[in-house]
Task: structure prediction
Amino acid sequence: MFRKKFLALCMTFAVAASITACGSNSSNSADNKNAANTGNGTKTETPAADTSTGFVPKELRVQFVPSQNAETLEAKTKPLATLLQDKLGIPVTVSVSTDYNTIVEAMASKQIDIGFLPPNAYVQVHDNKKAGDLLLQAQRYGVKDETGEPTEELVDFYKAEIVVMKDSPIKKLEDLKGKKMGWQDVTSSAGYVFPAAEMKKAGVDPDTDVQGVTIKGHDAAIMALLNGQVDAVAVFQDARNNVKKDVPDVFEKTRILHYTVGIPNDTVTVRSDMDNEWRTKIQQAFMDIVKDPEGGQIIKDIYTHAGYTPGDDKNFEPVREYAKLVEGN
Result:
């Protein structure tokens, strides 16, 4: 029940705040076709800070969530600090949070200036904590369902998937009852919220019908499945590529039990009191870096981001809806 109580505390207020404070339009339909259109807007959210009173950084502190092994991710982020420093003309430090909730609290306490946040963590920071604004939304190459290979099309959404072993007796979502399920943090869109919501639609309670195991990192989740530590895992599509170098036959050993609807891509979120001029500088720096061959490769290695576009908070209405669905509200 920990997950349910925690998510209720964090997300119930987030949804209520979004209705009164964000001025969001009606949300998109939760089928794959409409979800695939999530995030097509290019309007930037109105900055919260006034240029005359906003926070002007003397050093920029950037933090990432642990989408893969934290030590591996931290090593990959170091070169990005150098590129940002060159673009902005101030020192830049990068770090990896211990979990999704840590980065939310770090932004709320103004210990972090820029957060690379997945959708649900962004909604918490923006709606509940009033501590962060959407600066950019990531673009990635799509993923082919059949092979897990990238498409040639840049998209601003992705899907989550539930993965089981090839010979598993689990054939449908209902078969997960009584099984050991590998989750990411409760604020992970792909690693918990969206798969849990769709399990609930199928009559499987993610709190009581499965034995939940928290695993840090989507690559670690796939390895836990391969090692027999869990019966199924919820990860982003197709996280199996992250372990293919070490386990070349990972696709032959596993299969996809279920794909979720589309989820808005990750965000680059800025602290809510950031000076407007600096918002623009930081936004442009990331957009320039990702277009540079060296910088683009660094960012691809970190999160497989292939581009950035100015974000629109309305794109995250499906995230708010699914958070409500998990809680049964």
